[in-house]
Amino acid sequence: MEDRLQMTIEIDFNSDEALYIQLRNQIIYGIATQQYHEGDALPSVRQLADEIGINMHTVNKAYSVLRQEGLLRLDRRRGTVIALDIDRLKAEEEMRDALRVILARGFCKGITRAEVHELVDEIFHEYE
């Protein structure tokens, strides 16, 4: 069997953010920063749950959400693998919907357009 991806995942058990969302987000950041690549096989649900010290159902939920988002797929032989969905228009629309809420919240707090652009450039630079 092929080697599975070695993942460095840090869960903040004191965070208000759900554990499966933390795990999902860290996998997304790993893909965006090229720590994880198209075709990489992820650890099994049981293995990752044991490594992180969380419930298997939590890992399964994170993997399930990532599959729904078009970032993972199940392979009969290799298990869960990174498989980036090339549906760019759908991804752009989802991003637009998420940004709409985030930007509205920032607008209510007095964050300027220039500050938003600076933040976007700063964050986007992390993925280049």
TrEMBL record:
Keywords (A to Z) from UniProt: DNA-binding, Transcription, Transcription regulation
Which Pfam families does UniProt cross-reference here? GntR
Looking up SMART domains in the UniProt record yields: HTH_GNTR (SM00345)
Q: Which GO terms describe its molecular function?
A: DNA binding; DNA-binding transcription factor activity
Q: Which InterPro entries match?
A: Tscrpt_reg_HTH_GntR, WH-like_DNA-bd_sf, WH_DNA-bd_sf
| Organism superkingdom | Bacteria
HTH gntR-type domain: from which residue to which, for each copy? 17-85
Alphabetized PANTHER family for the sequence: GNTR-FAMILY TRANSCRIPTIONAL REGULATOR, HTH-TYPE TRANSCRIPTIONAL REPRESSOR YTRA
Name of the protein in question? Transcriptional regulator, GntR family
Q: Tell me the organism.
A: Eubacterium ramulus ATCC 29099
Its ancestry begins with: Bacteria, Bacillati, Bacillota, Clostridia, Eubacteriales
